Amino acid sequence: MLEMQGIYKTYLPGTVNETRLFCNLFLKVPKGQFVSVVGSNGSGKTSLLNIICGQTRPDSGWVMLYGQDISKEKEHRRYARVGRVYQNPAMGTCGGMTLLENISLADNKGHGYGLTPGTVKARIPYYKSLLARLHLGLEDKLYMRAEALSGGQRQAMALLMATMTPISFLILDEHTAALDPKTAEVIMKLTNELVREKQLATLMVTHNLRHAAAYGDRLLMFDAGKIVQDIQGGEKAALKAEDVFALFTRLGAGYGG
Amino acid sequence: MNMVIGVLEQGFIYALLAMGVLITYRILDFPDLTVDSSFPLGAAISAVLTLNGTPPALTLPIALLAGGAAGLITGLIHVKCGVRDLLSGIITMTALYSVNLRVAGRANLPIYAGDTLFLNEWTRGFPPWLAPYSKLIIILFIVALVKIILDLFLKTKAGYLLRAVGDNPSVVAALNKDGGYVKIQGLMIANAFCALAGAVMCQHQRFFDISMGTGTLVTGLASVIIGLNMFSKLPRLKNTLAVIAGSILYKACVSAALSLGLAPTDLRLITAALFLVILILGKTRVRKVKPHA
Ligand SMILES: Nc1ncnc2c1ncn2[C@@H]1O[C@H](COP(=O)(O)OP(=O)(O)OP(=O)(O)O)[C@@H](O)[C@H]1O
Ligand SMILES: [Mg+2]
Predict the structure, then answer these.
(1) Phi, psi (degrees; rounded to nearest 5) at A4
(2) Which residue in A184, A199, B1, B149 has the fewest CB atoms around it within 10 Å?
(3) Could you tell me if B184 and B25 are in contact, meaning their C-beta atoms sit under 8 angstroms apart?
(4) pTM for this model (two decimals)
(5) B235 near B29, Cβ under 8 Å?
(6) What is the predicted ipTM?
(7) A251 and A39 in contact (C-beta within 8 Å)?
(8) What is the pLDDT of residue A256?
């Protein structure tokens, strides 16, 4: 369903800071596949996601979704079928608006934003049931502003909002990085549940090697803009965090270098 | 007593403007200087149309539309040409200065001769005890109407989206919506309100003057900041009402300063000084958190 072909990207060409990142990158993610993406800092993971979402334009190459070339589509148009959760929990919700207002906005995605009431009262019980699934007690905080939530609570909201309406592709960029270990676990479990239940094709960037090994059908390792490991099927199922770590140490640059 | 009524009249007229500034400054987080010229634009249109025999009340919706067009231009310059927010407003403001002169035909256009929104068959029929309040009643009616419409709008899906785009544009993009259009929409509504304020002001003072726009944004901002700082902590008080109260309080301060012996020519100086005081006093307020890491 996602297909990237012949992606080239050089940042700041012709300057001393020139970064030749992608050189003929190819990536294909079939329908419903959950892909974990690891790689050292600066290896191009976020750039890849930005190219998919249209925040960054590749120098050349195609991005196809459902066999449709979306390379020329504007960012907001691409989110019609794509959901995204950022590393920063504040990016996914409107801080000055209440949880109910945020969730109502997300619920209406794909329909027009006209002059009908912003919150449909009849939907509130449904919203509460969605929030109750997060086990964070948010169902009792509908009238609280999102900025008053903790990072983990806010990230859970962001994940919920990103996956509420029918999408087929989910993009997660280190979405548990800002959370404490326990909350990170909760959010990761929730992510897995949502991805499986809705059969979303997913690209999940993470620095948590245990998450990368334990979750997903496939593991991609990036190094300097190249996919250096692509592990799928039974091999991925058997993969442990130590194995991923060993793969990292084999890289010339080393992890975090 | 007359002074109190005068302050209330002025305060409520500028409250229309303050509600416009509430949209740009507070909701969209957009410092929009267009208002300095959309306010006199509304006045110019209202003056010219009134002189041409248009019923004064009918000039208000026309001014409203013209203000919306001014906001549209600023929005297009900002969104489509990628010019920074402050500069887009300055460009429109500068251009509209000439447009306003064209509309009015000259720098000063009195409408003393005929009927106005506040002086007509209908108001002359008011009983004597009510007559001193006739202007205030009409202004109050307009302000209440605008406030109710704005409150209702902010509760709609479109209103939610408007609030979202100022709060966190990436949420709007994620909703598959073009944040640029939403911003343009907000600028149009805000400047429509400003032009309406200008038109009402013109009917009230019975003349258009090209310089009446100078300091409009400062007055609007001062009203919004006073209103939100002083009144928005009260439970269940809407921002629109807080801003209306802010506008009246601000006009009261200006008028108090004038009555302490300062000359009317010092008005702009007082306006600016008071604004500075408000900004310094309001600094303790928690700043809006930006969603960018
Ligand atoms: N807008 C930009 N302008 C210039 N260079 C950029 C830009 N964005 C990314 N780069 C460069 O491209 C490279 C890859 O960056 P990217 O953010 O994709 O890495 P990453 O894999 O997400 O790293 P991290 O794990 O630290 O998030 C880096 O060398 C970075 O300096
Ligand atoms: Mg990154």
Answers:
(1) -120, 130
(2) B1
(3) no
(4) 0.91
(5) no
(6) 0.91
(7) no
(8) 45
